[in-house]
Write a structure and sequence with these properties.
The protein has about 140 residues and is mainly β. The chain is built from 1 helix and 8 strands.
């Protein structure tokens, strides 16, 4: 009797609403964009209808540099469900973007080489025909 190969579990997909749709569309084009407030001048992440700082609705999309600094991180040694079983260990981090907002993302590369305060840059990782995610990679430190 031939052995059957189990089908991998599907990964969860983000919920895309009208407020976040331009963000997800920009990722398809390898662009990281943020909402910026015309009232207080602060950029924010995750996209929403009102500025989380001053509650203004005077918001516009801006291109982000894609650079940031690792604020905090954890190495996931147990998968966040069956869909991620083949990816452990992996790093999930809070990244302070150059534009000000803090976002959660994955850090690519060797988990043992990740440290708080490291400079990172976005890398666009295609998950499917419909989904691109912004992960980050540690930038080489200049000596």
């Amino acid at each position: 009797m031939a052995a059957t190969i189990p089908t991998p579990a599907p990964k969860p997909a983000p919920t895309i609403d009208p407020d976040s749709a331009p963000y997800w569309e920009a990722l398809q084009a390898n662009r990281l964009i943020l909402k910026s407030c015309g009232g207080c001048g602060k950029a924010h992440f995750y996209p929403r209808e009102l500025c989380p700082y001053c509650h203004s609705d005077d918001l516009a999309w801006i291109d982000a540099s894609g650079r940031g600094v690792i604020y905090s991180f954890t190495v996931c040694r147990r998968p966040a469900g069956p869909a991620f079983a083949d990816e452990v260990p992996y790093v999930v981090a809070l990244v302070d973007l150059a534009e000000g907002p803090r976002m959660m993302s994955r850090i690519l590369g060797d988990p043992a080489a990740v440290a708080i305060g490291q400079l990172v840059e976005v890398r666009f990782e295609r998950q499917s025909d419909e989904l691109v995610l912004p992960f980050f990679e540690v930038l080489a430190q200049k000596s």
